[in-house]
Amino acid sequence: MNYHLFSNKDLKLKLPFGCIISGPSSTGKSTFVRKLITNSVQLIEPIPKSILYCYGEYNSLVPELQRSGISVYSGVPPEDLIKKQVQPSLVILDDLMYS
Asked: Hey, where are the domains in the chain?
């Protein structure tokens, strides 16, 4: 099997981008999102000046994000709320597939 090394490669996510994180319950999706947000300075370009986390079901990540100064919103955000975010922004829709 051939493996390619990614050293010296720019692997940052470039805003604007779309990403779907899918998987069964308890497989680490929320942990991945938390780590993405925590490391956004190193992982996303340009660095988001604002982050809006929108959720369908309250989870342990919500108060953690609030304490760190990230905006949270219950449900699908109205378009004007998204447009009010300081740009560049990262908008995360968590568990809102059926909303």
From this structure: 29-94
Distance CA 93, CA 66 (A): 15
- Kindly report the number of other CB atoms within 10 A of residue 28's CB atom: 11
Task: Give the C-alpha separation, 50 to 56, whole Å.
Answer: 20
45-71: pLDDT as tens digits = 999 999 999 999 898 999 999 999 999
Three-state DSSP class for 46?
Answer: coil
Encoded tokens for 78:
């109205």
